[in-house]
């Protein structure tokens, strides 16, 4: 079931041509790449704004990429975060686990 949901999210973001929400890596401040991404979810606009303000801090709160890290509710909006290198991507994915 989880795989199915993730698959649907992937298809959805592909259809809408989603791109990364950040220009620079949350950890290094270097330019973020569209090919090194981690997707998290937020429940509403308010949480989206909060997440964009502090991506590194937000990533640290994420325990489940399908749930909003602030409210704990099911995320309805996906945020695709880009990183500058594989090390930062790994760091972002492993936060909160
Ligand atoms: Zn919210
Ligand atoms: Zn990096």
Written description of the protein model:
It is a single chain. With 97 residues, this protein is an alpha+beta fold. The protein has one domain (2-94). Helices cover 40% and strands 18% of the residues. The protein has four helices and two strands; from the N terminus they run H-E-H-H-E-H. Strands 1-2 form a two-stranded antiparallel sheet. The chain starts with a helix and ends with a helix.
User: How do the helices and strands follow one another from N- to C-terminus?
Assistant: HEHHEH
Bound molecules: zinc ion
> Would you count the extended β strands for me?
2
Mean pLDDT comes to 88
Radius of gyration: 12 Å
Q: Brief description of this entry?
A:
The protein is built from four helices and two strands; from the N terminus they run αβααβα. The chain has helices at 2-15, 45-53, 55-61, 86-94; strands at 33-42, 77-83. A two-stranded antiparallel ribbon has the order 1-2.
Annotation keywords:
97 residues; alpha+beta; two-stranded antiparallel ribbon; 2 strands; binds zinc ion
Q: What is the element layout, followed by pairings?
A:
Blueprint lengths: L1 H14 L17 E10 L2 H9 L1 H7 L15 E7 L2 H9 L3
Antiparallel strand pairs: 1-2
Helix pairs in contact: 2-3
This protein binds zinc ion (2 copies).
């Amino acid at each position: 079931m989880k795989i199915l949901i993730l698959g649907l999210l992937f298809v959805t973001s592909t259809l809408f041509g989603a791109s990364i929400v950040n220009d620079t890596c949350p950890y290094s401040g270097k330019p973020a790449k569209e090919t090194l991404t981690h997707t998290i979810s937020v429940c509403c606009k308010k949480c989206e704004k909060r997440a964009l303000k502090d991506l590194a801090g937000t990533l640290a709160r994420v325990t489940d990429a399908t749930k909003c890290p602030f409210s704990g509710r099911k995320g309805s909006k996906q945020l695709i975060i880009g990183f500058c290198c594989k090390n930062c991507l790994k760091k972002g994915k492993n936060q909160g686990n």
